[in-house]
Amino acid sequence: MPWVYLLLAGLLEICWAFAMKASYGFSRPLPTVVMLVCMVASFGLLSVAMRTLPLGTAYAIWTGIGAVGAFLVGILLLGESASPLRLLAAGLIVAGLALMKVSSAA
């Protein structure tokens, strides 16, 4: 179950990053509120996952899900560049996350 909590925490990190961008420097109330709610929920789920998972593993995977997810949201929804080097970099992050998962004892 801690891996499920960690995955949900990572997905919420993507949501709050996107909402932060949509808040336009916290000048738009609705995206700002969405960002804060998602942020609190993400940190809460990360905290629950860390009861069982090692700190380094949980934090690295949480940030990795958020980073790669935000990268994909940027490409798919915001028209950001999908250059080969950027895609390779994201692929390396995903490979690192997979190695972190398989090397974890929990």
Task: Summarize the structure in words.
The chain has 106 residues and is mainly α. The protein has one domain. The chain has four helices and no strands. Helix 1 packs antiparallel against helix 2 and helix 3 packs antiparallel against helix 4 (84-103). The termini are close together. The model has no long low-confidence stretch (mean pLDDT 94).
Instruction: Give the rounded overall mean pLDDT.
Output: 94
Biggest β-sheet description: none
Output the radius of gyration: 15 Å
Strand content: under 5%
Query: In DSSP terms, counting alpha (H) and pi (I) runs of 4 or more, how many helices?
Result: 4
Shape: flat
Order of helices and strands: HHHH
The structural domain count equals 1
Q: Which structural category fits the helices and strands?
A: mainly alpha
Keywords: Cell membrane, Membrane, Transmembrane, Transmembrane helix, Transport
GO biological process, one term: xenobiotic detoxification by transmembrane export across the plasma membrane
Family: Belongs to the drug/metabolite transporter (DMT) superfamily. Small multidrug resistance (SMR) (TC 2.A.7.1) family. Gdx/SugE subfamily.
Transmembrane segments: 33-50, 57-79, 85-102
In brief:
The protein is an all-alpha fold and about 110 residues long. It contains 4 helices and no strands.
